[in-house]
Amino acid sequence: MIKRMYHWFDSRLGISDTFMPMLRHPVPSELAGPLGWWYVFGSASLTLFLIQILTGIGLALTYVPSAGQAYESLLYLNYQQPWGWFLRSLHYWSGSAMVVMALVHMTQVFLHAAYKYPRELTWVIGVGLLLCTLGMAFTGQVLRWDPDAYWGVGVGAAMAGRVPGAGPTIVDLLLGGPIIGADTLSRFFALHVFVIPAILMALLAVHLWLVLKKGISVPPKPGELVDPATYDAAYEEELRRGEPFLGEAMLKDVVFSALVVIVVVALAALAGPKGPSAPPDPTLSGANPRPDWPFLWLFGLLSLSPPAAETAIILIMPVALIVGLLAVPFISNRGERAPSRRPMAVLLVVVIYAVLGVFTYLGQQSPWSPRMLAWSADAVPVNLVKKMDQPLSPLELQGAVVFQNKQCRNCHALEGIGGTRGPDLTTVGTRLTRDQLIDQVSNGTPGGGNMPAYGKQMSPAEMTAVVDFLVSLRPAGTKAARTPSDPSREKSQGSGK
Amino acid sequence: MKLLTALLGTVATAMVAIPGVGYLAAAVARRKDQPWVSLGPVSTFPKGETRLKVITPSENPLAQPWDGVTAQTGVYVRYLGRDENFQDQFNVFAINCTHLGCPVEWFPQSGLFMCPCHGGVYYENGDRASGPPPRGLYHCVWQVKQSQGEAEPQLFIQAPFLPTLQHTLTDKG
Question: Which residues of A touch B123 (CB under 8 A)?
Fold first, then answer.
């Protein structure tokens, strides 16, 4: 009965006539063997994308894309709607995994030089898919509508606002109004739910069409060169010995996708949904905005770039990166494909991932950010004020209080506790003389560097006390720093005590 | 016939496109007006102290009714006392760091604004002290006015939009 119904539809729609040849299309015979495991990452990205569509539709049933109520609807999803927390969690973890899988897929294609003739366009479309995926990650982060989301948009706007001339207009179009608010969230909702997915699916269709049309690349062999003049004939010959995709090759895709799904679901169940952390109230103090992990490297890079180069890095670097990626198949679309014969390509991958990894790590640690609560939360370590050999004088003790109260601790650690924007001051008394300390505290870093000038922020008495305390910060038995050229000043530096 | 098709096609496309572009561009138009908003009587700002003054969603003239808590805006207000002409003088700063727009926090003990993102620091008068910011804090446009029926003069500011480096809250920056 079901079979007959299928035939009724099939004879009219031509399903098996259209799709069975696609599934049975021949692929190089190596793909049925162990080398076929290299080819599973693209389909895993696709599987995760399907999960994103399903969980996304599910979330859209409850989520309210209104600036005033989005946060409450997220809390409702997390704590009241049955399975709401899981759907949010799965959407986040599967989305993160999709970014990872797309990158792994791209890296595999790059290392095996599968982008070379005749698959240049497949690579170009793939770059578009990566950008769409990252676009989904960013717009999705905004829909979380907590302080990270709010200030993430703010940072995006501040960056866009630096475009010469057009900056303010771009900011207006991005925000949809004068402030980050309802219009902004609605815009990002439309981007996340309609615009970017539409582009992504269109690109995906072309990407898959090209995979069918131009075939799957043969695993690279050293010495087997790509030559556009002879490639097509050789590939056709290869396919004549090939295997149908529906079979061993496809099974690998299915097995790997299933494993990825199991891992993602397990992560989602164990780790739970991300945020929302707090209401998106811009006046809430203690905000400490951080982007989601795919953008941490950018956060790190922007913190560490020299101010003079900053605008150039913000505006030119992303364009250069995209153009560079798009240009890959046009720089070399022929020749060797095996990674063992392309050391520069391998080196490039290693360098790029090392750089991204280091910046991501630094972005996560953000040693440049002041610890806003350190001054009131982290006490001065006891052994710095209660030294066995040399108890601190009342003035020095007062200096320790000044040190905390003036928020020095937010940037300077003592015994490793506190901010790390400036140097750890546990032994500063051995490095800087009293005069140097007074100069440093009063004037800060010359030329407006990392340390603000405290000259006007402290009374002379406070300055004396804090510098006395800083001079006392040195290991037992060591003398205070002094200027080598002027030994007579040793006494006045308090080391004689 | 070909000409007619092209003509009709162009007209039809334009008829759809022009309202569409106009609709999207409305965001740019909305920024034109900068209505005044009261921050309360001058006497509520102690001399020489910096206060985070919150403009609630219902007070914020730039807000949409459905903006919720995001329509809440904070500005830092510092009353400087009176100048030689007995005019009240204020510093009013937007909360946004000039580096990348994060919210700066005021520390009265050290008299500094610190930014949690990349460690930008500003002095109490808004000047850049250290870190990556390319300039000092954004100043809001303010005025002191005594409306009819009010017991004492009030501090007004032009409701702050999200300021960026090329579009500050004042003409002079």
Answer: 452, 456-457
Domain segments of chain B as ranges: 1-30, 35-158
**Measured between alpha carbons, how far is A114 from A333 in angstroms, rounded to an integer?**
9
* CATH of the domain spanning B35-158: 2.102.10.10
Domain count along chain A: 2
Asked if the structure places residue A15 within a domain, the reply is no
Whether the CB of B32 is below 8 Å from some CB of chain A: the reply is: no
Query: Within 13 Å and on the Cβ side, how many CA atoms surround A68?
Result: 9
State the count of interchain CB pairs (< 8 A) between A and B. Answer: 200
**Minimum-distance CB partner of A457 among B28, B111, B115:** B111
Q: Cβ(A135)–Cβ(B142) under 8 Å?
A: no
Its pTM stands at: 0.90
Q: Which of A169, A283, A301, A311 to mutate against chain B (most B CBs within 10 Å)?
A: A283
Q: How far is CA A93 from the centre of its chain?
A: 14
ipTM more than 0.85?
yes
Q: What are the tens digits of pLDDT across the range B128-166? A: 998 888 899 999 999 998 877 778 899 999 989 999 998
Q: Kindly state whether residues A359 and A392 are assigned to the same domain.
A: no
Q: A333-360 in b/e burial notation, b at 16+ Cβ within 10 A?
A: beebbbbebbeebeeeeeeeeeebeebb
Q: What is the share, in percent, of chain A residues with pLDDT greater than 90?
A: 67
Chain B CB within 8 Å of residue A168 CB: yes
B-contacting residues in A 123-162 (Cβ below 8 Å) = 150-151, 154-155, 157-162
A108 and A245 housed in the same domain: yes
Identify the domain boundary among A313, A343, A365: A365
Report yes or no: B129 at the A interface, CB cutoff 8 Å: yes
